[in-house]
Specification:
The complex is a heterodimer. By secondary structure, chain A is an alpha/beta fold. Chain A has helices spanning about 30-45, 80-90, 100-110, 110-120, 165-170, 185-195, 220-225, 235-245, 270-280, and strands at about 50-55, 70-75, 95-100, 125-130, 130-135, 140, 175-180, 200-205, 225, 250-255. Chain A has a single domain, classed as Thiamin diphosphate (ThDP)-binding fold, Pyr/PP domains (Rossmann fold, 3-Layer(aba) Sandwich). Chain A contains 9 helices and 10 strands. In chain A, helix 3 crosses helix 4 and helix 5 runs antiparallel to helix 8. The longest helix of chain A has 15 residues, at about 30-45. Chain B is elongated. Classes of the chains: A alpha/beta, B mainly alpha. Chains A and B meet through helix 1 and helix 6 of A and helix 1 of B.
Amino acid sequence: MSVDTEGTTAALAARDYKSSVKPVWCPGCGDFSVLSALTKALAEMQLPPEQVAVISGIGCSSRIPAYLNTYGFHGVHGRALPLGVGLKVARPELTVLVSGGDGDGFSIGGNHFLHACRRNVDITYIVMDNQVYGMTKGQASPTTAPDWSLSKLTPEGPGINPFYPLVIALASGANFIARASTSDPNGTARMLVEAIRHPGFSFVQILSPCVTFQPEQRDWKKLVRPAPVAATSDPAKAARRLMTDDNLFVGILYQGSREPFQPRLENRLEHPTELEEQFAV
Amino acid sequence: MSADRSKPPAGGADYTVDELLAHSLAIEAEAEERYTMLAEQMEVHNNDEVAKLFRRLAEIEGKHVAKVQALSGDTPIPHIAPWDLRWQGQSSPEAPEFDDLHYLMTPHHALELALQGECYAAEFFADIAASASDATVRQMAEELAQEEREHVALVEKWLARYPKPDRNWADDQDPPGQE
């Protein structure tokens, strides 16, 4: 953060949200573009870094909190959403972002995904979807195509239909649903701003190529295209649109108006020792 | 790579002075930040020679940022949200795209990327100069295009020192493949 000569705080730039930790992602990984988009989005919103918390699970993309200059928590595999929901419920004044990959979010954490959509707490869930478990050297994930045969664990492909995150999010009650692509970091930044501003549970699937284990995903940038219709607030219309979705349309699909879940906070503890006392034996 | 990313928007290239300054600042700042990120990637992957080149390119782009700021004098350059910047394609004309990298890339590849970016930036400003109705914009855009042409010449000079590598440059005896 830079401070001008008169001592007032100058505007925060995208670089002010980046930490000094160098990402260990493979060169060419789509997640670099997500990091760039996210820092641009936070800068556009001028959110104080200490008022933002980024919570993740396990996986390549789940490393992102370390690369940001906000608060962060690198949690347990698949459990990023309960952590994020708990934090937001306890500290509603914070901007809570939850991030991770398709394996973490839709397999190990699949059940949490359904219920986070349903509960509709005011957080934003960013899934960097590369249709593979990259960190463990390339196994099929819930969003992998049934005929993807490059893993020795599934030499003839997983053979089962992939999980459709947008369909599940809509059916489960997410209040904002969008898909972005790492080929357009500025467009992704805009979508993240919209998602963060929208009250309730916002879900953004970002197509983020794994250049090591799914190198053909480099072609996504030639294939993705803007959705031909504007966002809708009608879930029935959104559902009909998803019937013809080929997973390569980008844009905001659905913006609902459901009231976010936020329980009243009563009897807040003044000090953590009070909590210890409650559990003392 | 987006084929048209060097071009100003079709039918809307008539920038004001403020818009031109905001775009040129965004282009140079993005290039500085991108080269820094690329240098970090190469450092993490122990490709020191390419990392140093990217660091040097980031430093040069940082000087361009200062130059654009100087062009505006005492007048603050207006901020334009990244998604409202006007150019064809999805990427800033000058910054290499994230997926253009490979962990075994050589200085030749890095300089080819840089050359492409400088050429795109030169074309971008030249196109604005050619279509601007305002004389100040025309002059400023031509000055920026000339600056980029000088960088093109500089990168070409550097590139001459690094011949094209063997076609098997990406072969890895211990690839990050599946067990």
